[in-house]
Each structure stands twice: as structure tokens, then as C-alpha cells.
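Hi R.,

As promised on Friday, here is the backbone we talked about, encoded as C-alpha cells. Could you run it through your design pipeline when you get a chance and send me back a sequence?
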């Protein structure tokens, strides 16, 4: 079933309607594909079929409202898998409590596909996995019912690239890479994405190389964030403002890319993907020292934020127990509702363990909030800790801090004007700046 770039008639099923699969389903529907969505969450399915977004994202909310009735979501595999020409796997790939890669969602998705797989279908994996997974795990499962890849069906890997909350780099504009197992399968996958994207698509020499590209992207970020987090802690001892130093380094027009310190790394990619490569390396006799160290440094940053809070409280001869602390932000990054692997959760848990009296506010995830307004979170606090750089916090008039009688702030995202905060008579501490 080759795809015709001039006459879209293909039917596509997206497995997993989360932060990756749902935008892809919307884009495919908008481009003229007949789209089905398979998910295990009844609430997600109900929302999508009603033209509502289960994710707090203004773009998705508008897309789904406009596309109501054009994406058929279901929890029943039999309703959608066998009738579609293309099946795209967009399920999560987490790690367990010991940071071991958990491929169970991918395996279960592939086992479900295998039960309904038809000759001529194209299966594409977008879920982030370690190099070799599509060949060593996915392919055998899909072939377990007798069909043969390259002969009866095609298989390719095209790693997801999404940046939630980014209005500039939406899914349609982001370049992609892909790799397959046969020229025909790779060409079919390329044809599919060429009809979706207004961006280049680089064909890699294998699925294994495409898998490695995705891991490299996120390992690169994890290592550089770890480096700047370590520098921030060092510069605190030296009385150097880390943000000023980074802004100075940015003036070099070549050979430097800015990364900024913070309370740790969150989300579904950066704090997870390195462990996939670490595990794969160990299984093949290689020890990724750099990756392990970066993970250690970034994982320790929530505790460093706790140290900063203790430093702030010490200025007023107070300990954690019964101190009134306002917490601004729970999600892992600004302007999204995603709390997966959020360092804020670790900071909050530690503050609670130490007996602090918390007022938690996050306008993007009210279910995680203790109070209903920013004003309540600020009112008469011994310390206010900013953990997520939501626009509501960045754009807040800093005079509100003084009006609420806040004694000190720990700006873990370094987004507030520290001199203005100090001028209001409030103690300011950041990550790598005082």
C-alpha cells in the first residue's frame, strides 16, 4: 500500500494519545488522513471524541475543537488496528524506581498490534528507546503471529520530537529523522511524514541509528544542564552570579550554547532517556561514566534547593518545622500541565518531611495545588520558593512580594530581578546567584 503524496487516502492509527500521540493525531487529521486513536485511558478517549483536550494546551484545545469527529478514539484495539494502513506507536517509555528502563508499554502495544496485524501495513515506532530496541524487541513481537517484516508488513522508527508549551516549534515545523529495515518500508515511512511536515526529514542508515539520534539529543542536554548546575553550586561559594556569567559567555558568536541552572531536570525525556543508554551500554560491556555523573548531579539539585531554603530561613533564625513556605509551581517546566519526573515534586516532598507548612500553587495543575490563588501562596510567608517558570510567575509584579509580607525568596529558576527583590527589603537567593 504505497502512499500517494498527491492523493491522501491512507488511514492511520495512533497508539497512545498523550503528549506525543495526540498532537500527531491532530496533525494527521488536519492533513487529510483518516485517524483513529487507541488509548487505555477512558477519560482521554472520551475527551478526544468530544473534541476536548485531556491535556492543558491551548493549541491542542483549539485543534481538537476544530477537528471534532475527525479523530475516532477508542480503548478497543479491534475497532482500529486491522483497518488502518499505518500504525504509529507513541506510548511512554519510563524507568522504574531503580532507574531501569521499562519497555512494558512498548511490548504490550506491539503484542496488541501483532494480534491484529494485516499484510501490507506499516508500523512506525515513535517512543524513545535504546538503540537496537526496534530490531531486537519490537520486530520479533510483531512477527510472532507468522507475518514477516519486509515481506508481509513494514517497520520503521521515527523518534518523536515535541516541545510542549513551545509556540514557535510546533510538531509540523520540527525536522525529523527516521530509519527502517528495507528500502520499501523506509520509503513508505518517509512518504507518510512528508505529507505531515513542513520540515526536512533525514533518512538514517538504520533504525538503530535513528534510535541513537534521539538518545544523543537528550543525553546532550542532560550533560550540559548538569555541567551548569555544578558550576552554579561552585559559583555560589565564589560569590559569582551564574546567570550573568552565562549571559556574558553568550556573546561569543561560535562554540558556545547557553544552558541554565535550575532545581533539576523533569519531563518524559531528559531525566529518563540517559538510563536507556546506560543500561544498553552495561549489557554490552561499556560503562557510561559521563552519563551516570550527569544523572547524579541533576538528581541532587532538588536537595540543593532545600539547602538554599535552609540558608534563607537561617537569616531569620528559623528552621523548617512550622515555617510558612509558599511553593510556586509543580510541573516540570513552564506553561505546561505535565508533572512527570518534576523536580518540584521532590522539593515539596522534602519540605513536607521537614515539617514546613506549605502553600502550594500551580495555575497549570490545580489538582496539585493546596491554595486557589497566587495571593494565598504568597501571604505572610517566611520563604517563597519558585520552582516552575510559568508566565504567571515571571510576569508577576514583584511588588506583590512586599505587599504579601514575604520575608525571603528562593528563585530556583533565576527568573526574577534579584536587585528589585532586594530593593523591596526581601532576601533573595537563586541557584548560582545571590
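Update: got your reply. Pasting your designed sequence below so it's all in one thread:
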Amino acid at each position: 500500500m504505497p502512499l500517494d503524496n498527491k492523493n491522501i487516502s491512507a488511514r492511520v492509527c495512533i497508539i497512545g494519545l498523550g503528549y506525543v500521540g495526540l498532537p500527531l493525531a491532530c496533525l494527521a487529521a488536519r492533513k487529510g488522513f483518516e485517524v483513529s486513536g487507541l488509548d487505555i485511558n477512558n477519560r482521554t478517549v472520551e475527551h478526544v471524541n468530544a473534541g476536548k483536550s485531556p491535556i492543558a494546551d491551548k493549541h491542542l484545545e483549539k485543534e481538537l475543537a476544530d477537528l471534532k469527529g475527525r479523530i475516532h478514539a477508542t480503548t478497543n484495539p479491534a475497532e482500529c488496528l486491522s483497518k488502518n494502513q499505518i500504525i504509529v506507536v507513541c506510548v511512554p517509555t519510563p524507568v522504574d524506581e531503580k532507574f531501569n528502563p521499562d519497555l512494558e508499554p512498548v511490548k504490550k502495544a506491539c503484542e496488541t498490534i501483532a494480534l491484529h496485524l494485516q499484510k501490507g501495513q506499516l508500523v512506525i515506532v515513535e517512543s524513545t528507546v535504546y538503540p537496537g530496541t526496534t530490531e531486537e524487541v519490537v520486530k520479533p513481537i510483531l512477527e510472532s503471529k507468522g507475518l514477516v517484516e519486509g515481506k508481509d508488513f513494514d517497520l520503521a522508527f521515527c523518534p518523536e520530537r515535541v516541545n510542549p508549551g513551545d509556540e514557535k516549534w510546533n510538531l509540523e515545523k520540527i525536522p525529523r529523522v527516521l530509519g527502517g529495515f528495507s528500502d520499501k518500508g523506509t520509503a513508505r515511512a518517509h512518504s507518510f511524514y512528508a505529507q505531515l511536515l513542513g520540515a526536512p526529514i533525514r533518512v538514517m542508515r538504520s533504525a538503530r541509528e535513528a534510535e541513537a539520534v534521539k538518545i544523543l539529543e537528550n543525553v546532550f542536554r542532560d550533560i550540559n544542564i548538569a555541567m551548569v548546575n555544578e558550576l552554579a553550586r561552585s559559583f555560589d561559594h565564589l560569590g559569582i552570579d551564574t546567570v550573568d556569567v552565562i549571559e556574558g559567555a553568550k556573546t561569543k558568536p561560535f562554540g558556545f550554547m547557553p544552558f541554565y541552572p535550575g532545581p533539576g531536570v523533569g519531563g518524559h525525556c531528559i531525566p529518563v532517556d540517559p538510563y536507556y543508554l546506560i543500561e544498553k551500554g552495561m549489557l554490552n560491556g561499556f560503562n557510561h561514566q559521563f552519563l551516570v555523573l550527569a544523572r547524579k548531579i541533576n538528581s541532587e539539585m532538588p536537595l540543593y534547593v532545600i539547602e538554599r531554603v535552609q540558608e534563607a530561613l537561617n537569616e531569620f533564625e528559623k528552621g523548617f518545622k512550622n515555617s510558612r513556605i509558599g511553593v510556586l509551581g509543580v510541573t516540570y517546566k513552564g506553561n505546561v500541565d505535565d508533572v512527570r519526573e518534576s523536580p518540584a515534586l521532590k522539593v515539596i516532598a522534602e519540605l513536607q518531611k521537614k515539617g514546613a507548612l506549605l502553600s502550594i500553587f500551580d495555575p497549570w495543575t490545580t489538582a496539585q495545588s493546596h491554595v486557589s490563588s497566587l495571593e494565598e501562596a504568597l501571604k505572610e510567608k517566611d520563604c517563597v520558593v519558585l520552582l516552575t517558570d510559568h508566565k504567571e510567575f515571571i510576569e508577576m509584579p514583584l511588588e506583590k512580594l512586599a505587599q504579601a509580607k514575604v520575608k525571603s525568596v528562593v528563585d530556583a529558576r533565576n527568573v526574577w530581578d534579584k536587585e528589585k527583590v532586594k530593593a523591596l527589603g526581601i532576601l533573595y537567593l537563586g541557584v548560582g546567584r545571590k
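One thing I noticed while checking it: The radius of gyration is 24 Å.

Thanks again,
M.
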